[in-house]
Amino acid sequence: MSAKIETVAIIGAGIMGAGLAQLFAQNGYAVKLHDVSIDALDRAVTRAGNNMAMQSDFGWIPAEDIVPALEMMQCTTDLGEAVSKADFIIEAVPEVLELKKNVFARLGGLAPEHTVLASNTSTFDVMAEMPDAIAGRVLITHFFNPPQLVPLVEVVRGERTADEVIETAMELMRAVGKYPLMLNRYLPGFVVNRIQLAINGMAYMILNEGILEPEDIDKAIENSISLRLAVGGPFATMDLGGLDVMAASARAMGVEPPPALAERVERGDLGVKTGRGFYDYAGIDEEEILARRDRRLMLLLDAYMRGLKD
Length: 310
Ligand SMILES: NC(=O)c1ccc[n+]([C@@H]2O[C@H](COP(=O)([O-])OP(=O)(O)OC[C@H]3O[C@@H](n4cnc5c(N)ncnc54)[C@H](O)[C@@H]3O)[C@@H](O)[C@H]2O)c1
Description:
The chain has helices at about 15-25, 40-55, 65-70, 80-85, 95-110, 130-135, 165-175, 190-210, 215-220, 225-230, 235-240, 245-250, 260-265, 285-310, and strands spanning about 5-10, 30-35, 75, 90, 115-120, 140-145, 150-155, 180-185.
């Protein structure tokens, strides 16, 4: 059983902290937003109001919900005041390990003993750096910018993180409409940034070949795989294309197909067209699978054509 969360404190009101404060306030949590800079706090509240106004224009929320949500956000430059009643804290100060360690050391003394201490770090294994006194309730909740909109949150446990702390974090993420992905151990870059790194690395290689400008490469991605990946991840997409085709295409680019691909091709599990690939499609009509993919892509293209293009 995980603890009931009523008050969430956000430490650092920058790009991520502002969006996090908005997210929790919009979902009915009392939010304490702390920063060392009053300007940052002011900007965060203004930005949250503007973002919610946009959501209202989109018909996502009623306009009359904006002021009550903003009233759920209380700003303070006093760390003790921010965390004294917090049930869940998310640290979102700049990506400097010593700074984060210092903030967590202070949180250990200022927050109630039941409070979960989460970090939004993109890179550090903060759990390994924690004193034993608080290590059981420290974990990473890695949101993506803008955190009030992007669904995924990578929830990373440390070796000493207690089970109920993970459970509480997972439940809280779901309660604010997120899709939490639990990682049982720290991995540099977690999952998504590692994949992003691979894409960026290849974009640099193509740039270095001197054939295309950055804008051309961006447009190529925007008009192809960024849309396609929005309706299915790499494995679902490979299943749709055919794993034999994927293996041949890898070889043509000088890459030996990895065992997970080569073994499936060897067995004849070629994806949707044979009823099994990375996924099992037994009993599902191929035309239905393709139609589902196409419907999702058309919905996305519809929005894209309407204005996401620029
Ligand atoms: N920006 C992104 O796209 C992104 C995405 C995912 C994760 N992250 C991670 O989120 C964290 C925050 O990133 P950001 O981009 O929001 O940074 P940012 O620089 O926009 O904001 C950091 C805020 O922390 C404040 N701050 C500095 N020292 C402080 C202290 N001791 N106590 C309280 N507040 C303090 C600053 O005044 C600033 O307002 C980092 O760990 C970053 O790696 C960022």
